[in-house]
Amino acid sequence: MARERLTDLKIKKAKPPKGGRLMLSDGGNLLLQITHSTSGDLNKSWIFRYERDGKRHDIGLGSYPDRTLQAARDKAQEFRRGLLDGIDPVRERERRRSERLAQAAERARAMTFKQCAVGCIESHADGWRNEEHHRQWITSLEQYAYPALGDLPVDVIATPHIVKALEPIWKDIPETASRVRGRIEKVLGWATVRGFRSGDNPARWRGHLAEIFPAVGKIAPAKHHAALPFTDVPALMAELAEADHVGARALEFTILTAARAGEVLGATWDEIEGNVWTVPGNRMKGGKPHRVPLSDRAMAILNGLCKTDNRIFPIADNKRGMLALLQDRRPGVTVHGFRSSFRDWASERTSYPPIVAEQALAHAIGSKVERAYHRTDLFEKRRRLMADWATWCSRPVPTGATVTALRA
Hints:
Blueprint: H1 8-13, E1 21-27, E2 30-36, E3 42-52, E4 55-63, H2 69-84, H3 89-110, H4 113-124, H5 131-149, H6 159-170, H7 174-193, H8 216-219, H9 233-242, H10 246-257, H11 261-265, E5 272-273, E6 276-279, E7 290-293, H12 296-303, H13 320-329, H14 337-349, H15 354-360, H16 368-373, H17 379-393
Antiparallel strand pairs: 1-2, 2-3, 3-4, 5-6, 6-7
């Protein structure tokens, strides 16, 4: 008597004993296993059962109804035909899996360092505070890493390749070289997590490259940003006021607010409310919003600008525009150095407590515990400080003295 085959209705009604399982046969080596899940639902999965060389084998065909009854029958028939031709379904499945893994490994080997760098940058870009950081990553890798590493398959990169990239710049520009090393390490770490390479990271510092290169601090002392003496700031401000250029207005505004160049160049009109400029946390070095009191001159600069763009100073997305303007007038001086000019002026020519000037510069003050208790931003005191700074910046520039010859 022929075995009665399964139907969708029979499968739907079938239930295993409590705590056990139920095996339903459709004939032709095809079985349906039904069990209870931990949540009480029913799990139904197809099994192809066969015997080879005196040994029983079970191979899964997927769950029901994801694989329908007819699809399971078709797959079972395919396996039976294979057995007639001497093809073992289990070994055939393992062979195909090995082929897929080999192909995936081959694709991974085809990933170059440059491709991984692009992927790494895209993955982390949303977590960076400003566009300048993004630009620096791209520029430094293009200039110093890609010539030696860019076209290499990422899984073959080893210590000699890293040394080849870093050795030419380590002594001449150690700070930049150190940043490039860290970025290479980050890219290779990203590639490892994504499965494009394996093994230790050849760009790591401790216990590895530290044995090859001297520490950056031992090569050359850290260089601070060149600053203009605060006594010379009024003369420069007078020159900038005469210049009809948005870069001059941006540089004036930067000096008057003692802000960082990136904060000013990213400023938008909706950040201005009355005579207060609120810089959002994602553009601040410390990651927290910062209120900046605007002096009368700072407000005059804003009121004199055309609002053709949401950005207040629609110039290049980096400080080169302001820096070029500054270099023409005061070679060697940096934009960032005006923060030092402001700090020196506050220390030497005012009686404001140091904490007020530090707050104006958006510096972290004291230990973590001290900052937890010190929650005020001293805004009103800072307003008076910045007004006094603007007054200093606009003070008259002494004219040349007249020399009168005296008779003997």
